[in-house]
């Protein structure tokens, strides 16, 4: 078992923990750990630029936003935490089951381990790819951001009026 | 030139949102009207200069290029028509001008997303535009911020997330095999790639599209989303969004990338038939007007997938024509359902009855819509079903053809039940003061009904000018 | 003469129908004028076209579907008959429907139907035929729905029965087109074996259901009560029979080239025989003028199916001749029924009686046509029935017997009908009855005269209308004009008719009035039980079918509940154990949707990997 697979397993476990965590703060931590391991994986796969993006945005920025949001909400009482943690195994038992089944299934698929990707990433500059080849996608991102902003404006604007 | 289809709405959107003054809000409606009409007109008169003309600075903006063929034109017409209907209905359904403005913004974004979906020829760009459409739809479903809307939007969001994961995985596998994301390169390299990986990628992608399109058993989000969304959004969702995001994409990707190989055809046909039957039976048991229409949508989507699954020129032509018809008559039925809902403040069919006395135009246009859905000649739905049936027969799938015919009887059954409960019979208690709704909505119903009738009567013209050329997507 | 004149008889009524729809309601008389002019014009054109052979074709929808019309003696004769009946019915309706609210819609539907029938008759392409044929379904629904309170239900019933049979026709056409590689009828020649037999059976169901043969008949008696009367006089009585038998003859003689020894020939004859006997038995005990006639409309179709089904020259000629004759006397009978309804305000036989002296012309027309339908020489019905007897006897005694039994009861029921409606004592409520206006009388007189002429001078219709319609190879050069040659059959017929008269006299003597003339049959041991069941609708295939559907839908709703249970109870039970609140049940369900999707995705992947890699 090489290091990549080991990291993958750890990442999966962290992701599971994120979903099943007993409080939002712990879930955020789980997410950050997942992203961090993902960063290492991407880095090991020779995409340093992507790894840096992942690290700064997902691991850093998003975690900060989440934590600051959570700090503004009312924390759960002790009793509620116990209530919530009581049935979480029952509620999410199928997630690990699906994961294990999927892993077993993939093992049976006889995918050869020595596939070489048809695309060699080393030769292409990321800036070149983003701005010269994939303008349409960048442009799509602009629309997505506008849509997201509109969504926030529509769905969360009047929340403050409500008790 | 085709890039203007995306650029113009976006520029308009930015200008409209500039804090210049309140008149921009009023202008938004007319801007959207102009936009959608231009889209329909350009697509109908597709031989004109608009598609072939050169506009160097704009053309240079996107290097990827676009697919512009007859399938795209038909989708443009559908997108324009349904967005137009949704807009007119929204104008009457939403009292507040500010609300309407926000709605128009999202509507334009959704329509740009769909226009992008039907034009791109790159699998990753396709994914981006799918996301644009989906995000706009999440917000639209939750637009009223009531419990049901949020619940419906949430279900759609979660299931869409699953679809997204599946599609991204598949795209990654495609890149692994072919090294590029354009349809043609992937399509060419699928022959030589590792069979297991290729099949895995194809299967995962199809599953993602099935979720987007609401094919049974991936349909869980669909009835809730359709039912809980505000009226104009139901029209948009049922009329075009699921078709463009799921079904059109399925047809395009299968013909351009996967190729109609036997196992894919088998899956499409089986899923289509299951959807037809499941949707029809489920619709039979509904008491809620909009929920019944939602299940009926699932059933009709099944016909489209079944037709596309034959993989012949005729089958695809039938599927695409059915997609067009379904856009028109399902929008029509949802427009009428929203009118009934607005007048009666309920969707429960058991509390309706005899509405044909009070709302004659709604009743008559619904009749046109459901007769076309059932495939009664000479309405347009008859022709599309006939094409699909002939295609099934020609490819030797007699069992599927039989099921399709029988399910059409089932369709007749639940629509007759609906028509009887809602529009015919004795006027139900408390409905004496119900009135026909505003002229704008009536105009939409009548126009859509005329399109249904007209497309049936002038079927040969449509067939020769729009449907027959679709077979070009099969020739690679 | 240019070939495209063939479009005119289709276009003129269609355009007139649409014009009537566009006419404002207030313009009195305009719609009648348009309808009369249009039917007169198409009558002129069809007579002009008579005896010619033309072919007109333009490409239509690709895939071998072209808009091709073919005029040859058979179709020319059918469209001419259609035009004549159309004109007479419009004339009749102009008085009958005067000041009725729905007149405008009725004329519009009627003209559009005439256009579709002409189109279906002329079309040489099966898909084109299907187009017109299905269009008729819509106008049929519309016309029945115009009638009184129960009409909508009846219209739905008719729509479902005929619609289902049309689906059969559609599938049959698809198979036939697939087998022969073309949809042009004149180029088809399909052997009746295996799939070909199924195709024929499906198309035959479509054809005979249009005419209302058993077991697809049950909407006709209901429509007789609910639908507007001119509809009954022209559609179930005349035009649908013409179209139905025309198409039946086309498929069994042209497309499929059936031989007498084929098993399908026996199927057809059995359907014909059963239709004759059962429908006439039902007709016998009816107590309503129109309902009684409607059962005869079904029964008479049996003679035509039996005649065509024999596939011997005498039978085919007889069947087609009977089609013409039946269209004549049956529409005239319905018209007399309409005249009685208009004057007396009812068609319930118990409330009629003795009005024959007050409406002498109507009564005379009724007598002539009743004699014709009973097969009394020298009226037209006698000659066509003799030909059918001749053909049936050649194929099997049992079929002949059924036809003769049918004849006996037909005569008996018309003796009862005439006696009860027109003779006997005049009731107080019918004092005001007078003869109807001339626009209603003229069609009746014309048709009644036609019945006499077609009987006495039967050589004209047989030699110039019927026999040219059938290919020479079928007829072996025989001619069937003149008085029947087989005197034994004639004697049997006369004996049967006399028997019916004696039976009537016996019944009248026993009960004292015309209405009860057949009560001794109605209440005979054994028969009365069946009649009771039939009257309650237990034997109506439509009701039986709905019974099955109801059971099926109960099962389906049970399955639906089971699925509900699977989604709601079972799924959340998996997630949360056994105890759970209703609220959680709602919020928890999207996970199940995901599980469903994942399960299906796995199934799809497994299949693809098995099949593709």
Report what the structure shows:
In chain A, helix 1 (3-20) runs antiparallel to helix 2 and helix 2 runs antiparallel to helix 3. Chain A is mostly helical and 163 residues long. Chain A has helices at residues 3-20, 24-44, 48-72, 78-86, 88-92, 94-108, 126-133, 135-156. Chain A folds into 2 domains: 3-120, NADH-ubiquinone/plastoquinone oxidoreductase chain 6, subunit NuoJ (Four Helix Bundle (Hemerythrin (Met), subunit A), Up-down Bundle); 124-158. Residues 159-163 of chain A have low confidence and may be disordered. The longest helix of chain B has 32 residues, at 147-178. The mean pLDDT of chain B is 85. The radius of gyration of chain B is 21 Å and the shape is globular. Chain B is an all-alpha fold. The two termini of chain B are 24 Å apart. Chain C is mostly helical and 613 residues long. Chain C has 24 helices and 2 strands. Chain C has a two-stranded antiparallel sheet with strand order 1-2. In chain C, helix 3 packs antiparallel against helix 9, helix 10 (263-284) packs parallel to helix 15 and helix 11 packs antiparallel against helix 15. The termini of chain C are far apart. At the B-C interface, helix 8, helix 10, helix 13, helix 18 and helix 19 of B face strand 1, helix 5, helix 6, helix 22 and helix 24 of C.
Q: Major sheet of chain B, described briefly? A: none
What is the helix content of chain A?
over 70%
The fraction of residues assigned to DSSP E strands of chain A is under 5%
Q: CATH homologous superfamily name of the largest domain in chain A?
A: NADH-ubiquinone/plastoquinone oxidoreductase chain 6, subunit NuoJ
Characteristics:
heterotrimer, A: 163 residues, mainly alpha, Four Helix Bundle (Hemerythrin (Met), subunit A), 2 domains, 75% helix, globular, disordered C terminus, C: 613 residues, 3 domains, two-stranded antiparallel ribbon, 24 helices, 2 strands, 73% helix, 3% strand
């Amino acid at each position: 078992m090489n290091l990549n697979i080991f990291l993958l397993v750890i990442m999966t476990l962290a992701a599971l923990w994120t979903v099943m965590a007993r409080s939002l703060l712990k879930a955020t931590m789980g997410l950050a750990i997942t992203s961090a391991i993902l960063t290492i994986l991407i880095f090991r796969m020779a995409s340093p630029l992507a790894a840096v993006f992942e690290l700064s945005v997902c691991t850093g920025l998003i975690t900060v936003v989440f934590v600051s949001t959570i700090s503004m909400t009312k924390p759960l009482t002790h009793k509620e935490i116990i209530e919530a943690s009581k049935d979480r195994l029952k509620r999410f038992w199928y997630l690990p089951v699906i994961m294990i089944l999927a892993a077993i299934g993939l093992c049976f698929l006889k995918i050869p381990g020595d596939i070489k990707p048809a695309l060699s990433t080393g030769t292409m500059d990321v800036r070149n790819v983003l701005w010269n080849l994939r303008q349409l996608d960048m442009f799509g991102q602009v629309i997505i951001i506008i849509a997201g902003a509109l969504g926030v404006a529509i769905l969360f604007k009047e929340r403050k009026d409500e008790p | 030139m085709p890039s203007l289809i995306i650029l113009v709405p976006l520029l308009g959107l930015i200008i409209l949102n500039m804090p210049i003054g309140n008149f921009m809000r009023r202008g938004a409606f007319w801007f959207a009207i102009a936009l959608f009409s231009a889209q329909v007109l350009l697509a109908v008169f597709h031989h004109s200069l608009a598609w072939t003309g050169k506009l160097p600075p704009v053309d240079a903006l996107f290097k990827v290029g676009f697919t512009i063929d007859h399938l795209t034109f038909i989708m443009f017409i559908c997108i324009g028509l349904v967005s137009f209907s949704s807009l007119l209905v929204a104008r009457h359904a939403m009292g507040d001008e500010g609300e309407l403005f926000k709605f128009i913004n999202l509507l334009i974004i959704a329509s740009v997303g769909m226009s992008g979906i039907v034009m791109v020829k790159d699998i990753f760009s396709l994914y981006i535009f799918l996301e644009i459409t989906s995000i706009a739809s999440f917000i639209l479903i939750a637009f009223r911020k009531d419990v049901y809307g949020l619940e419906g939007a949430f279900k759609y969001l979660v299931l869409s997330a699953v679809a997204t994961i599946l599609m991204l995985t598949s795209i990654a596998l495609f890149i692994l095999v072919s090294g590029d994301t354009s349809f043609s390169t992937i399509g060419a390299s699928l022959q030589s790639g590792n069979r297991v990986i290729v099949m895995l990628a194809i299967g995962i992608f199809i599953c993602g599209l099935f979720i987007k399109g609401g094919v049974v058993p991936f349909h869980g989000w669909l009835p809730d989303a359709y039912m809980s969304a505000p009226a104009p959004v139901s029209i948009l969702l049922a009329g075009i969004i699921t078709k463009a995001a799921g079904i059109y994409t399925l047809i395009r990707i299968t013909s351009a990338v996967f190729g109609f190989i036997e196992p894919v055809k088998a899956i499409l046909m089986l899923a289509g038939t299951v959807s037809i039957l499941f949707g029809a039976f489920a619709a039979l048991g509904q008491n809620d007007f909009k929920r019944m229409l939602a299940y009926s949508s699932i059933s009709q989507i099944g016909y489209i997938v079944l037709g596309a699954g034959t993989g012949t020129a005729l089958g695809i032509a039938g599927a695409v024509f059915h997609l067009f018809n379904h856009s028109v008559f399902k929008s029509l039925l949802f427009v009428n359902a929203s009118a009934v809902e607005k007048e009666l403040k309920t969707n429960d069919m058991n509390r309706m009855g005899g509405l044909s006395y009070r709302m004659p135009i709604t009743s008559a246009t619904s009749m046109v819509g459901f007769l076309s859905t059932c495939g009664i000649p000479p309405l347009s739905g008859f022709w599309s079903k006939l094409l699909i049936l002939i295609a099934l027969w020609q490819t030797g799938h007699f069992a599927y053809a039989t099921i399709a015919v029988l399910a059409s009887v089932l369709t007749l059954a639940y629509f007759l039940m609906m028509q009887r409960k809602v529009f015919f019979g004795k006027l139900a208690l408390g409905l004496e003061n119900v009135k026909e709704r505003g002229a704008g909505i009536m105009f939409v119903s009548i126009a859509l009904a005329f399109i249904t009738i007209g497309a049936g009567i002038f079927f040969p013209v449509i067939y020769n000018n729009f449907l027959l050329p679709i077979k070009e997507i099969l020739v690679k | 003469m240019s070939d495209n004149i063939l479009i005119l008889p289709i276009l003129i009524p269609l355009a007139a129908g649409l014009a009537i729809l566009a006419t404002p309601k207030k313009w009195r008389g305009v719609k009648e004028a348009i309808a009369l002019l249009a039917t007169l014009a198409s009558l002129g054109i069809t007579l002009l076209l008579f005896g010619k052979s033309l072919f007109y074709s333009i490409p239509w929808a690709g895939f071998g579907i072209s808009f091709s019309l073919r005029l040859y003696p058979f179709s020319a004769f059918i469209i001419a008959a259609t035009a004549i009946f159309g004109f007479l019915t419009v004339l009749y309706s102009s008085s009958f429907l005067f000041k009725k609210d729905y007149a405008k819609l009725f004329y519009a539907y009627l003209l559009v139907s005439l256009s579709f029938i002409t189109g279906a008759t002329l079309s040489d392409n099966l898909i084109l035929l299907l187009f017109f044929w299905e269009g008729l379904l819509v106008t049929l629904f519309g016309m029945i729905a115009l009638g009184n309170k129960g009409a909508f239900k009846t219209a739905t019933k008719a729509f479902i029965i005929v619609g289902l049979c049309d689906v059969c026709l559609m599938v049959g056409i698809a198979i036939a087109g697939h087998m022969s590689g073309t949809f042009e009828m004149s180029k088809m020649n399909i052997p009746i074996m295996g799939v070909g037999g199924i195709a024929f059976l499906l198309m035959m169901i479509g054809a005979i259901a249009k005419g209302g043969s058993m077991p697809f008949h049950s909407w006709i008696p209901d429509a007789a009560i609910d639908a507007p009367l001119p509809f009954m006089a022209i559609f179930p009585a005349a035009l649908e029979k013409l179209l139905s038998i025309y198409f039946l003859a086309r498929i069994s003689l042209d497309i499929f080239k059936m031989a007498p020894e084929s098993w399908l020939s026996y199927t057809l004859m059995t359907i014909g025989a059963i239709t004759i006997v059962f429908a006439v038995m039902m007709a016998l005990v009816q107590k309503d003028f129109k309902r009684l006639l409607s059962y005869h409309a079904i029964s008479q179709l049996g003679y035509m199916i039996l005649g065509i089904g024999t596939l011997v020259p005498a039978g085919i000629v007889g069947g087609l001749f009977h089609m013409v004759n039946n269209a004549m006397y049956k529409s005239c009978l319905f018209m007399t029924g309409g005249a009685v309804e208009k004057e007396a305000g009812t068609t319930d036989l118990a409330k009629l009686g003795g009005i024959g002296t007050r409406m002498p012309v109507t009564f005379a027309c009724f007598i002539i046509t009743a004699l014709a339908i009973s097969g009394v020489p020298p009226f037209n019905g006698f000659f066509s029935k003799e030909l059918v007897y001749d053909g049936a006897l050649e194929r099997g005694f049992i079929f002949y017997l059924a036809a003769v039994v049918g004849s006996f009861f037909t005569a008996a029921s018309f003796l009862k009908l005439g006696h009860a409606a027109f003779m006997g004592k005049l009731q107080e409520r019918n004092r005001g009855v007078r003869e109807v206006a001339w626009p209603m009388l003229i069609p009746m007189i014309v048709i009644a005269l036609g019945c006499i002429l077609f009987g006495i001078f039967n050589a004209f219709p047989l030699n110039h209308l019927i026999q040219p319609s059938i290919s020479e190879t079928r007829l072996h050069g025989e001619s069937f004009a003149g008085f029947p040659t087989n005197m034994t059959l004639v004697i049997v017929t006369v004996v049967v008719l006399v028997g019916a008269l004696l039976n009537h006299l016996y019944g009248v003597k026993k009960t004292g009035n015309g209405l009860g003339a057949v009560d001794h049959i109605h209440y005979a041991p054994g028969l009365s039980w069946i009649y009771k069941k039939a009257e309650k609708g237990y034997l109506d295939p439509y009701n039986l079918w709905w019974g099955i559907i109801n059971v099926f839908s109960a099962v389906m709703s049970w399955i639906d509940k089971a699925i509900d249970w699977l989604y709601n109870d079972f799924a959340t039970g998996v997630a949360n154990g056994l105890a759970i609140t209703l609220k959680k049940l709602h919020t928890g369900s999207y996970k199940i949707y995901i599980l469903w999707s994942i399960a299906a995705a796995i199934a799809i992947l497994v299949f693809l990997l098995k099949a593709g890699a």
